[in-house]
Design brief:
Elements lengths: L1 E4 L1 H19 L5 E5 L2 H13 L6 E3 L8 H4 L18 E9 L3 H13 L4 E9 L11 E5 L6 E6 L5 E6 L5
Length: 171
C-alpha cells in the first residue's frame, strides 16, 4: 500500500521554517547546496521560493560515504558542482529525508573540501529521527515516525511527490 503525503504543505512548512531561521540568524545571502538527488530537487524549488539569484550547488556524496567499501560504487555517480565559493559563506545544506545522519556527515566532509564556510544550516523535508550520529536538522518540513514496515520516498522532479510505502510484514 502506498499513500501520498501533501508535498505542497510540506514545502510550505519547510520554506516558512527556513525563512524564520534565516531571519533569526541574520543571513541575507545563503548558499544553497542540495544532496543528490532529492536534495537537489528541493534546492531548486527553495531557491525559486526564496527568490535567490545565485545558482544552487549540487553534491554527490558517493565517495564520501563511510560505507562506500561495503556498498560499492553507485553506477550513477556524477561530479559535485558548487558554482560559488564556500569559504566564509553561510551554507544551507538540503536533503529530502534525514534518518541516520551518515549522509549529512559525508556531505559536510565534502563541503569542507571546497573551503571553510562561516556556517552550515541543515534543512530537510522529512526527519525520520532514527539517528546513528549526533546530527540534527536546523529546519524541517515534517517529523515522521515510521513503523518498521514503512518507508518514505521522494519522487520527482516533475511532478514532485512524497510516498509513504507499506512493505511486506514478516509473519
Amino acid at each position: 500500500m502506498t499513500a501520498l503525503l501533501d508535498i505542497d504543505k510540506l514545502l510550505d512548512e519547510l520554506e516558512a521554517n527556513l525563512r524564520r531561521q534565516l531571519s533569526e540568524r541574520g543571513i541575507e545571502r545563503p548558499a544553497l547546496v542540495g544532496i543528490r538527488t532529492g536534495g537537489v530537487w528541493l534546492a531548486d524549488l527553495l531557491s525559486k521560493r526564496l527568490g535567490l539569484d545565485e545558482p544552487y550547488g549540487e553534491l554527490d556524496i558517493s565517495f564520501y560515504r563511510d560505507d562506500f567499501s561495503r556498498i560499492g560504487l553507485n553506477p550513477k555517480v556524477q561530479p559535485s558542482h558548487l558554482p560559488f565559493e564556500t569559504e566564509g559563506r553561510d551554507v544551507i545544506l538540503i536533503d529530502d529525508v534525514i534518518m541516520s545522519g551518515r549522509t549529512i556527515r559525508a556531505a559536510m566532509n565534502e563541503i569542507f573540501d571546497y573551503g571553510r564556510p562561516a556556517s552550515i544550516m541543515l534543512a530537510t523535508l522529512i526527519d525520520l529521527g532514527a539517528r546513528e550520529l549526533p546530527i540534527q536538522p536546523d529546519v524541517v518540513g515534517r517529523v515522521l515516525t515510521l513503523q518498521a514496515h514503512q518507508r518514505v520516498k521522494l519522487k520527482g522532479p516533475d511532478p514532485l511527490s512524497v510516498e509513504l510505502r507499506e512493505t511486506e510484514q514478516p509473519g
